[in-house]
């Protein structure tokens, strides 16, 4: 009953925030406002669900609630791949590609490279969390340095074209991208939903999972493929969003107080959508576009991350 009540409250909060976002200050032009804002809300829903499913599953694989897929440098990887594609092919070639073709190219590159990196690092350093973190941060720095070097060599016009892709933006989401992204995210989330009972067992630890008949290596590989694809689709759709998954996953753990991933997936998705919709409402109508939603997420997520580290450190001392 408590869990159902939590779902009900979150659903009502999401519906209320969506209604407020859609109808506030339409200035009598409700049809135009709905056409513009509905596209944003669909983007919020897709990104929120993708971040929740990907982060919760990744934290189960790594057995640590402070980690997100971005610890492996996936944001820096996205920046490097976008920079490298423009450096090698040129903005004119990429522009000549169809919008969907460019979108699929970004997803394919992110999924393939990030899956190889994540699986190889998890296999080599799963028993040493410190090395796992260090290698992930080193890779992120490495990708960032390559991107910076290539950006210096770019033509100013191509650099300007690149900058439009490197920052999270929910205002420039394309309708055809939303349709494709919704299909891909739905299939990947259904796949992780199907894997949820095995993830519940893996939550006990790798040794317990093996003793209970779980093929841990296969589960890790399948989960990482889905996680990498979700991160890739989300990043290709709106750009990098580092801390969103971390915020919603940890809040979901505190609210649900359960190990069952399906309950955490639902709760995290609703929280993510609520944060994105209400955050965009603040950006547009309170701050008058003087800041961006991504800046608010990064600032809030960074503070929450530091608070979680300090809380766990003090808890361990106590």
From TrEMBL:
It is found in: Cell membrane. It comes from the Bacteria. It is a multi-pass membrane protein. The keyword Membrane applies. Keywords: Cell membrane, Membrane, Transmembrane, Transmembrane helix, Transport. Its main location: membrane. PROSITE patterns: PROKAR_LIPOPROTEIN. Pfam families: FecCD (PF01032). The keyword Nucleotide-binding does not apply. Belongs to the binding-protein-dependent transport system permease family. FecCD subfamily. This is Iron chelate uptake ABC transporter family permease subunit. It comes from Pseudolactococcus carnosus.
């Amino acid at each position: 009953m408590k869990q159902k009540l939590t779902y009900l409250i979150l659903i009502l909060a999401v519906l209320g925030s969506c209604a407020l976002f859609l109808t506030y200050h339409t200035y009598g032009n409700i049809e135009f406002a709905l056409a513009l804002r509905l596209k944003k809300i669909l983007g919020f829903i897709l990104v929120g669900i993708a971040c929740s499913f990907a982060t919760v599953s990744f934290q189960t694989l790594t057995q640590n609630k402070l980690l997100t897929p971005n610890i492996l440098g996936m944001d820096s990887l996205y920046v490097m791949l976008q920079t490298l594609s423009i450096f090698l092919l040129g903005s004119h070639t990429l522009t000549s590609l169809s919008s969907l073709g460019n979108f699929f190219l970004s997803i394919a590159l992110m999924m393939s490279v990030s899956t190889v990196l994540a699986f190889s690092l998890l296999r080599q350093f799963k028993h040493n969390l410190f090395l796992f973190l260090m290698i992930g941060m080193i890779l992120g720095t490495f990708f960032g340095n390559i991107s910076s070097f290539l950006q210096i060599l770019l033509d100013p016009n191509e650099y300007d074209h690149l900058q439009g892709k490197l920052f999270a933006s929910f205002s420039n989401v394309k309708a055809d991208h939303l349709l494709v992204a919704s299909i891909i995210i739905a299939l990947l989330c259904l796949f992780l939903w199907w894997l949820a009972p095995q993830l519940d067992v893996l939550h006990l630890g790798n040794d317990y999972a093996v003793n209970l008949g779980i093929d841990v290596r296969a589960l890790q590989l399948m989960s990482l493929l889905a996680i990498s694809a979700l991160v890739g689709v989300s990043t290709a759709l709106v750009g990098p969003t580092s801390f969103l998954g971390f915020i919603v996953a940890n809040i979901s753990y505190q609210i649900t107080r359960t190990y069952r991933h399906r309950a955490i997936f639902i709760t995290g998705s609703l929280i993510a959508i609520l944060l994105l919709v209400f955050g965009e409402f603040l950006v547009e109508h309170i701050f008058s576009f003087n800041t961006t939603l991504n800046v608010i997420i990064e600032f809030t997520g960074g503070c929450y991350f530091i608070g979680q580290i300090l809380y766990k450190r003090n808890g361990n001392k106590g």
